Amino acid sequence: QKEVEQNSGPLSVPEGAIASLNCTYSDRGSQSFFWYRQYSGKSPELIMFIYSNGDKEDGRFTAQLNKASQYVSLLIRDSQPSDSATYLCAVNIGDNYGQNFVFGPGTRLSVLP
Amino acid sequence: NAGVMQNPRHLVRRRGQEARLRCSPMKGHSHVYWYRQLPEEGLKFMVYLQKENIIDESGMPKERFSAEFPKEGPSILRIQQVVRGDSAAYFCASSPPWEPSTDTQYFGPGTRLTVL
């Protein structure tokens, strides 16, 4: 059973702080990793994708990937109340002949003004 | 550059009726995925399709649910004889043909199905 795990939260951080969201996955063959943000009643919105070990930065967001530890994280710097949402980690464990996306259950983030 | 389109956005059906949900992928995308999300729950994979082919339907209930992605036209998720437990948000996502670093899925706005 291929699994992607996240703490369900809620994770509460004060405005301006760094929010750290974590995700672990079970399949060592996983190739690509994604973070989506989902506001209540809305569809998931892609924030970041990462394919290689290390850090990838985009504005206030940094994705970190450690394939040896099967761990991917999302850091949100200078958190804003508008960042309050559920963050979904997704892992593609497919191969050249197909794709197999597995989503984690999501972590609910609350940024307190 | 239109994104993934889904219609209808809201659908109300009575028990026993059929629900038909449509998804048009982004231009250039040949892979379509359907997910179901119950209130306050995570996304559950249902089915993965390419044009005229079902690649993976391991998440689809064995009865009453079917999906297709014809050569022409949108992908359709069909639910026959709906029951109250089918009430959920159904999201469609699309992605381009697989290549390294182009396998991102983009989601449509969803169809919210309510079964009375």
Structure, explained:
The complex is a heterodimer of chains A (113) and B (116). Chain A has 113 residues and is mostly beta strands. In chain A, 0% of the residues lie in helices and 53% in strands. Chain A has strands at 4-5, 11-14, 19-25, 32-38, 45-50, 54-58, 61-66, 71-76, 85-92, 101-103, 107-112. In chain A, strands 2, 4, 5, 9, 10 and 11 form a 6-stranded mixed beta sheet that branches. In chain A, strands 1-3-8-7-6 form a 5-stranded antiparallel beta sheet, with no helix packed on it. In chain A, β6 and β7 form a beta hairpin. The mean pLDDT of chain A is 91. By secondary structure, chain B is an all-beta fold. Chain B has strands at residues 5-7, 10-13, 19-24, 31-37, 43-50, 53-56, 65-68, 75-79, 88-95, 106-107, 111-115. In chain B, the strands form 2 sheets. In chain B, strands 2, 4, 5, 6, 9, 10 and 11 form a 7-stranded mixed beta sheet that branches. In chain B, strands 1-3-8-7 form a 4-stranded antiparallel beta sheet, with no helix packed on it. In chain B, β5 and β6 (53-56) form a beta hairpin. Chain B is globular, with a radius of gyration of 14 Å. The N and C termini of chain B lie far apart (37 Å). The model of chain B has no long low-confidence stretch (mean pLDDT 91). Classes of the chains: A mainly beta (113), B mainly beta (116). Chains A and B meet through β4, β5, β9 and β10 of A and β4, β5, β9 and β10 of B.
